[in-house]
Amino acid sequence: MSPGKTRKDLPEYEYPKETTEKLDYADLEALDISKLDQPGGIEELSAQVLNFINKNGFFYVAGHGLTDEDIRRQYAIAEQFFDLPLEEKTKYLANTAAGDFRGYKARATGEQAGKDNDERYNIPKFTPEHERPHPQLILDHYEEIKTFSLHIHNQILLPLLRIFAHALELDTEYFVNQHRYTAPGLEYLRYMKYHPSPRPLWAIGHTDYNTLTFLFHQPISGLQVQTPLGWKYIRSSPLSIIVNVADALELLSGGYLKSTVHRVVRPPVDQRESARLSLIYFARPESQVRLERVRSPLLERLGVKAEGEESLGGVTAEEWARARIAKDHRFRAGLVGSREGEIIAGVKQKYYD
């Protein structure tokens, strides 16, 4: 089998209907990254980040260059993937026990069925280190998945990293140089499907362990963020991408940029019988980047010093990610009876539910 060179026909993906219930939504700001090309654009966007980032680690990105058709096309591929026979999907299982995310994760069954109700397929960076078998469906659409992933990295992630670096008064390429696409790293695109379940909590409150997470429009409600006023829903819009700050950026900023605490709950009554399909991109630093606080003039003036900074300074982005993946695997697989406290180097895992 080899990657397909042309787009093959797929049933067109149609979004589910929006809920009619009145939900308590978080008030998020939007960064229009198309302004970076304008005089004074990076200064305006950096000031906007500093104004809202400590209030809420979720924000929207507009001006990202992807069309609704681009996004729905990826959902169409995801929908077809999850419709494949289970025996076909399990040929591509991820080795999560070793902290390897690449490939398929089935939803829990049997005694562990209460642990989760989702299945996932993770497609890593399109670089030689990540060459691996894929189902023929993925190979048939390999080039368009690659184009979509590269657009997110080059046209959305890198501009945001320049904005964050400028906000911290660093060289604008500082974080960009820690996220080179061709360098070894664990960045990936995820297709994810939550199956209907009576459980009120579909994903426990948690933070992500990468740099930034990109979540694309999905009308099935359920994503919530923890705020000082409690849990609030995140509104989804076809015109913008939901982005959240994750662990790596928090650690690199000495805790100044907060990793967003979020969870997924059972959808409202009028969406309760529908599966929740998700399209997510996880951006991560290069494997050997050490997760230690940057020497930022802004952080120095503010006196920001991370707790446990000395012990975590020797931990790389890959070590951090693999430790969290493996820890999560042990709990989901029933190898440990409760969630473990330590991630790595004495740093504790926090739980929010």
Automatic annotation (TrEMBL):
<dbReference type="Pfam" id="PF03171">
    <property type="entry name" value="2OG-FeII_Oxy"/>
</dbReference>
<dbReference type="InterPro" id="IPR005123">
    <property type="entry name" value="Oxoglu/Fe-dep_dioxygenase_dom"/>
</dbReference>
<comment type="similarity">
    <text>Belongs to the iron/ascorbate-dependent oxidoreductase family.</text>
</comment>
<keyword id="KW-0560">Oxidoreductase</keyword>
<protein>
    <submittedName>
        <fullName>Putative 1-aminocyclopropane-1-carboxylate oxidase</fullName>
    </submittedName>
</protein>
<dbReference type="GO" id="GO:0016491">
    <property type="term" value="F:oxidoreductase activity"/>
</dbReference>
<keyword id="KW-0408">Iron</keyword>
<dbReference type="Pfam" id="PF14226">
    <property type="entry name" value="DIOX_N"/>
</dbReference>
<feature type="domain" description="Fe2OG dioxygenase">
    <location>
        <begin position="185"/>
        <end position="285"/>
    </location>
</feature>
<keyword id="KW-0479">Metal-binding</keyword>
<dbReference type="GO" id="GO:0044283">
    <property type="term" value="P:small molecule biosynthetic process"/>
</dbReference>
<dbReference type="InterPro" id="IPR050231">
    <property type="entry name" value="Iron_ascorbate_oxido_reductase"/>
</dbReference>
<dbReference type="InterPro" id="IPR027443">
    <property type="entry name" value="IPNS-like_sf"/>
</dbReference>
<dbReference type="InterPro" id="IPR026992">
    <property type="entry name" value="DIOX_N"/>
</dbReference>
<dbReference type="GO" id="GO:0046872">
    <property type="term" value="F:metal ion binding"/>
</dbReference>
<dbReference type="InterPro" id="IPR044861">
    <property type="entry name" value="IPNS-like_FE2OG_OXY"/>
</dbReference>
